[in-house]
């Protein structure tokens, strides 16, 4: 059974408690903050949502509805919980929109596009359920206030948070535009300030609403236009440049507490956006120039989101090497947001917060923001660790490039590690030959850690592709390496392979060898395998002996419980 699972990657059955050791520590480190932030609300503390009202749903599809997060132009947004405990935001679409066929068709299409957007300073779009009575959109729940709330409650952002906000929004727009999506509605209520950085939400979906003139005519429903680009009023082609304009306006708002084209009636704001220049007084000089070019009237003259990002990161015109941008964004957010000044005050439940509309005037002046000057600094070398970070951020192309570069280097640690991780990546992408070659390179390096791991990986891959002799040889190599973790794992894998081939004597020997290793995970797992084999062979007595032996070892006690359950079940089969 377990031979059909890659023990180093995922989906390991309960009796195969193997993990892919050095990937997860890195990912955990990279994502720990995010996980901590998102689990906080789930860990007993009252989720920051207002109570449900009469008539609100208590369940939407597979989601339990916990409370209200807010209400916008498209409908009410609820806090929900998925079956696996994950918190989500459920945006229930207003009935008049939902009943419009044109809207629904376009909405579906925009949601599909939004699902392709990389999860980088954005909130993931999970799914949309448009068929039923109350159609809704499901996105990742981001704990934290919106930028609009934060500024209304606490005034302009402090310098380091403003820098993080500018970079995070530019990174989000880069990801959104890279997926071929234009946000069209970037504004302070669509930027959430999480513990680990800003997250942009609601990308693309405004389009579904705006295409239908009968729906846009209800002007007051459209929400505030204070952050829209001139071309969104003049009927010219709306492209990614409109989002860059909005980026400039939102950064100005965050730094000064004022929308740069003021508030008031739609027509007045629209006139100022089309004809007047942005009021950036109070915005720190280091951001002002970039905000000025971002808010050029002519979309052609604005930088792209990627250019914004590079300039914020202090990279020269040549741009950084593939993948460096994301790492630099991560570093900068960590420095400015996580370790810097607190990003924002805690959010208020709906109803209790001051109802300042987008673009409302807040008091206070923008503090000085300092931009890092990294120009002239040497680029960091591509390493296996860089590849792992990029893989964690979902940038598989970047990760592959980093792995290849590092694997070709003569770094005695990073090269074998990169080769093995390249193998794992290529295997996941269906390139088996490439994966085999990469694993072989890692094995050939003789690296004390990476080579045995790669041998196990190779064994698994070859077994899956039917090259059983090759798999046996690879596992053998890992067993012979004597590696503390990998040798027992390989012994057990080899045992499973022999069992599969009907070579039960060898299987038994290998399971016993793995049990003797006393490896905290492999030994009990091997015991479970051995028990299962003995039971299958009708040797209930032998199975019981193994079980008793295992149960006598306190370190295996927990696993032994599981084995005990396994025993009668197998017997009853
Ligand atoms: N993914 C999310 N995580 C956490 N809170 C969210 C999420 N999505 C929305 N919210 C909350 O729900 C509120 C309402 O969102 P919604 O997008 O409907 O309105 P809006 O952005 O204020 O206005 P508009 O509909 O005009 O864009 C937001 O202000 C925010 O507080
Ligand atoms: Mg919104």
Structural overview:
The protein has 573 residues and is α+β, with helices and mostly antiparallel strands. It has a domain at 59-349: Transferase(Phosphotransferase), domain 1 (Orthogonal Bundle). It has 24 helices and eight strands. α9 (240-256) runs antiparallel to α11, α20 runs parallel beside α22 and α21 runs antiparallel to α22. The chain is elongated and about 85 Å long. The two termini are 15 Å apart. Adenosine-5'-triphosphate binds at residues 69-74, 77, 89, 91, 123, 139-142, 146, 185, 189-190, 192, 201-202, 223. Residues 69-74, 77, 89, 91, 123, 139-142, 146, 185, 189-190, 192, 201-202, 223 line the site of adenosine-5'-triphosphate.
Number of helices: 24
Estimated structural class: alpha+beta
Number of strands: 8
At the first level of CATH, the class of the domain at 59-349 is Mainly Alpha
The largest sheet is: 6 strands, antiparallel
Helicity level, as a percent range? 40-55%
Question: What would CATH call the architecture of the domain at 59-349?
Answer: Orthogonal Bundle
CATH superfamily of the domain at 59-349: Transferase(Phosphotransferase) domain 1
The rounded Rg comes to 28 Å
| Arithmetic mean pLDDT | 78
Give the cofactors and ligands.
adenosine-5'-triphosphate, magnesium ion
* Global morphology: elongated
């Amino acid at each position: 059974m377990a031979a059909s699972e890659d023990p180093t990657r995922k989906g390991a059955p309960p009796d195969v408690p193997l993990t892919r050791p050095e990937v997860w520590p890195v990912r955990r480190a990279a994502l720990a903050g995010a996980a901590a932030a998102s689990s906080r609300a789930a860990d007993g503390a009252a989720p920051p949502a207002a109570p449900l009202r009469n008539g609100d749903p208590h369940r939407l599809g597979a989601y339990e509805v916990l409370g209200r997060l807010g209400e916008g132009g498209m409908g009410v947004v609820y806090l929900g919980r998925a079956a696996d405990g994950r918190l989500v935001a459920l945006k229930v679409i207003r009935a008049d929109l939902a009943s419009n066929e044109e809207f629904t068709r376009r909405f579906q299409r925009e949601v599909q596009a939004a699902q392709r957007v990389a999860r980088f300073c954005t909130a993931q779009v999970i799914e949309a359920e448009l068929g039923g009575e109350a159609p809704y959109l499901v996105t990742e729940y981001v704990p934290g206030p919106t930028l609009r709330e934060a500024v209304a409650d606490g005034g302009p952002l402090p310098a380091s948070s403003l820098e993080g906000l500018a970079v995070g929004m530019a990174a989000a727009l880069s990801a959104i535009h890279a997926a071929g999506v234009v946000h069209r509605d970037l504004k302070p209520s669509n930027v959430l300030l999480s513990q680990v950085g800003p997250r942009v939400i609601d990308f693309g979906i405004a389009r579904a609403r705006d295409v239908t003139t009968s729906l846009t005519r209800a002007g007051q429903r459209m929400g505030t236009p204070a952050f829209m680009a001139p071309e969104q009023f003049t009927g010219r082609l709306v492209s990614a440049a409109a989002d860059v304009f909005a980026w400039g306006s939102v950064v100005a708002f965050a730094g000064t507490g004022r929308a740069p084209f003021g508030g008031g009636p739609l027509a007045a704001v629209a006139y100022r956006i089309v004809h007047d220049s942005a009021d950036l007084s109070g915005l720190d000089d280091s951001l002002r120039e970039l905000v000025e070019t971002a808010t050029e009237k002519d979309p052609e003259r604005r930088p792209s989101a990627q250019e914004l990002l590079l300039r914020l990161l202090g990279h020269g015109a040549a741009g950084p090497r593939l993948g460096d941008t994301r790492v630099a964004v991560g570093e900068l957010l960590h420095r400015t947001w996580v370790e810097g000044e607190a990003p924002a005050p805690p959010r208020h439940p709906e109803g209790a917060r001051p109802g300042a509309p987008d673009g409302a005037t807040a008091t206070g002046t923008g503090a000085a923001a300092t931009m890092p000057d990294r120009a002239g600094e040497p680029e960091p070398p591509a390493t296996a660790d860089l590849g792992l970070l990029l893989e964690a951020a979902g940038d598989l192309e970047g990760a592959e490039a980093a792995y290849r570069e590092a694997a070709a280097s003569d770094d005695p640690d990073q090269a074998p590690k990169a080769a093995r991780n390249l193998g794992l990546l290529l295997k996941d992408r269906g390139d088996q030959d490439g994966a085999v070659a990469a694993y072989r390179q890692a094995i050939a390096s003789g690296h004390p850690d990476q080579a045995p791991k790669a041998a196990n990986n190779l064994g698994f891959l070859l077994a899956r592709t039917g090259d059983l002799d090759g798999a046996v040889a690879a596992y053998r190599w890992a067993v012979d390496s004597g590696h503390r973790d990998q040798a027992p794992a390989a012994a057990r894998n080899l045992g499973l392979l022999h069992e599969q081939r009907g070579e039960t004597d060898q299987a038994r020997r290998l399971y016993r060898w793995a049990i003797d290793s006393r490896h905290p995970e492999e030994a009990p797992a091997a015991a479970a395998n051995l028990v299962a084999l003995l039971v299958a062979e009708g040797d209930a007595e032998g199975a019981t002996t193994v079980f008793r032996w295992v149960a006598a070892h306190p370190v295996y006690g927990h696993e032994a419980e599981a084995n005990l359950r396994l025993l009668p079940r197998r017997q009853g089969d």
